[in-house]
Request: fold
Amino acid sequence: MKILGVGGGGREHAIAEKLCMSEYSPKIYWISEYTNPGVNAICRSTKGEHIRGSTIDPEKVVEFAKKVKPDFTFVGPEEPNFHGVADALEKEGIQCIGAKKAVAVIEMSKAEMRRLQWKYDIKGKLLFKTFRSSEEAYSTLDKYSKTLTWLQNVALKPARQAGGKGVKVIEDRQIYLHDEKQKFKSRHFDWLEGYMKPYADVEDKILVEENVWGPEYTLHCFTDGKNVVGMPMVQDNKNAHEFDIGTETGGMGSISGPGNVLPFLTEDEYKESLEIVKSMVMAIQDMTGETYHGIVAGQMMLTEIEGPTVIEMYSRLGDPEALNVMGMLESDLVDIALAILDGKLKNSDVKFNNKAVVVKALSPKGYPDYRELAKNHPIEADEKAIQKKGAKLYWASVDNDGKKTITMGSRAVEIAAVADDLPTASRIVESCIDYVKLTDGWQMYHRSDIGTKELIAKRQDLAERARSLYLQRKQNGTLGKRTDWLPGVGRVDPVQNLKKELLSG
Amino acid sequence: MPGIFGVYPFGEGRENWSASRFLYFGLSALQGRGQEIASVALFDAEKKVFNIITEKGLVDDLFRDGRKFPTSFLGLGLVSAFEDDGIIEIKSPKKLVLAGDGKPLLHKEKAKAFRILAEMVSKKLVAAKDSIEAVAELLSEVRGGFSFIAITENQEMICARDKMGLKPLEVGAVGFDLGAVASETCALDVIGASHTGSIKPAEVVIFDPLSIRRKAIPSSKKAHCSFEYVYLARPDSYIGNTSVYEARERIGEILAEESPTNGDVVIGVPETALPFAVAYSRAAKIPNKLGFTRTGRHMRTALKPTQFERISGVQLKLNPIRSAIDRKEIILIDDSIVRGNTLKNTVLNMKRKGAKKVHVRVGSPALIAECPYGVDVPPKDELIGRSVSDKEVAQIIGADSFAYLSTEGLAKAIGLPRKELCMGCFTGQYPEKIE
Reply:
């Protein structure tokens, strides 16, 4: 058997590893922009091949695929999905685990995703507005600045998935700091407009959503278009630094287990979240007429107003969350892939262990906002010593020229440990940090707090507060209801207003 | 016992934030820790200098209408009950500003002790390869009970607590943009930050534009300042995971257990003793009433420098509500008793307004010794609790009975092991040798 993989990060290293562990003993082939030493080693050890090439150019991927003639292709990242790699491969008769362009819109356009959710009235929604320019966004917010609508407390996002950058959460509840925060919103709108210029594939440039609070988690699923099978929940940590402070990153580390449900969430919340993701898959298929083959995920939050709520959708595994679910997967990933491609995916095909997994990313200083600083540092890791400690190193944003490995500006490596409980797994990872070094003396950073008892207790506390409120709403029939009072206008129902707006638009 | 506060923005566009707005509101929340001086230091990133602005009085006096503050995204501030306190600036070898709470045992005078500490930080930062190692080394060398926030010309914000963890330092986050560090969590609340953790005893945390790093040195025996829980901190603050309000309620409950008495009504002396009274009332099943109304702005009378200011402050603060006390046997709860003068006045006033009896209960043990860590306890010969029995205190202040909280009771109320608390002002025994 031959399998072709696409993408070169930590997630792809974990996928490649899982594929090569299969009973089918496949030869692993891979294409990515840079050479990930982990993926490369797997290709060589299975007598496959790794080539460097653009993963967002469907022609390049097809060209390599035609040469390899794989049994199927497995796409890791989102951008190949957005660029139609799965579509191009299928046209050539090569089956693909990876969302086609039409259904990947669920991730590519955060605005389209939200419209779909409202149109199909799927649970866990947020109020939103989209704008084509900074000017339009700011004047709308300014118009409402003296009234207490949801437009004060907002998340400002690029309307298209854009490398996980550009999200600002501005909780503007202190009237005495309003001017300061309004000023910041306006500057960020300008920044977003500039940032979105290169993305001509979406009309909406800026998305403004109501700000909510609560613990976040990701629920990944396999789907063949008919069945949607859930994986264990994972919690990623987006803030760059300790104490949950600092810029939004792609994820500085993630926790999962023991078992399917995170320690601060409930079985019911798992089920509800799974229903939501299923509904989103059915809705996007219904809207586009395309079949969804591969992986879909809800990046969720347990909110006071809606319970399990969709923050974003992924058309692939999260990175570093992939390391958690791959670390817990007991079934043969190739069997799952074949079941998906046959359209015969069953719950029983997918089994996970009951372990706890902690993953931590190590980033050169400079990531995420000053990537030039984080680039081009030679990096070395003592993988054997890490293995001895009971953990495993996954190469991520690096490039290997055959002699040395250098950093490429994002998270350079990810270390994962599997244990009976999260704090133990966290301690194992911590004991490995010093085995990874930039040999030119530039510093790296990571979050020592991820997976500790202390941080889990904080998440627990947050979850309990959100849960007691949304369960009360559920009981008294106000789940998802919002009401505002606009002086001079009267009672306003923003949910109804949004629905009307979407119908008329 | 100053209040200190620092704010640190991260990421692209970080220079768009204006630190002075956050400092104003953060320091306002810490105003209870001192009302004699307010000071901020704002970093000018272009010229690489600090602009320090100081005013005698309140945060509102510092940020008075129309005063222009230099544009800056990075700064720290301090309020204090001592006019000598302030932000310390060191020009070389490493330019930095430092605001401290507590006292390092480096000099008899507090301001000089912090200056010496700041000079040591500056020198060590230049000598060492890594800032965090430099400050960790400093922490292992310096005795005393203190916490500090410093900002260097390299835009490093250095936060640290002494080995015993005497003074608190709490950490918060605003969205994906700002980190903040404060003496108390109430300062984080008012700027809309969530309380995401505490700097640990014997820990250094350094914020730089690209990272946050932490390093802990081996902690000696812990000694948290128990006076924070009784009086200094605001009731809406948390010290680590302990709610100050809950600790104060437990003080009231334990007082009711330790020194029960008959009475018709429980009244707390505003502001600090109000939660004591609420809980005392609940435990003793005696109704709680508001007994006083305040004239003028909120004032921390015990921290006022002169006797005149303290008594006039109390008299303005404590006008009795006659109908709440007339012809009633009162259980009056106060937070602490220093010289007894203000309490004597209060009891006298209540009796003139018709109280039949006044039983005084104090929510802390007798103050008998000075604080080597910067809390302004008057000279020993002025402390009523040092040489006078409870019975005699009652006679002096004109109360019908009088009792303090025990030291064991206080430890129980705080909820930390007795050996992890500094109760030096109540016992004369300090966590380390004091020369």
About this structure: The longest strand of chain B covers residues 96-104. The first helix of chain B runs from residue 19 to 29.
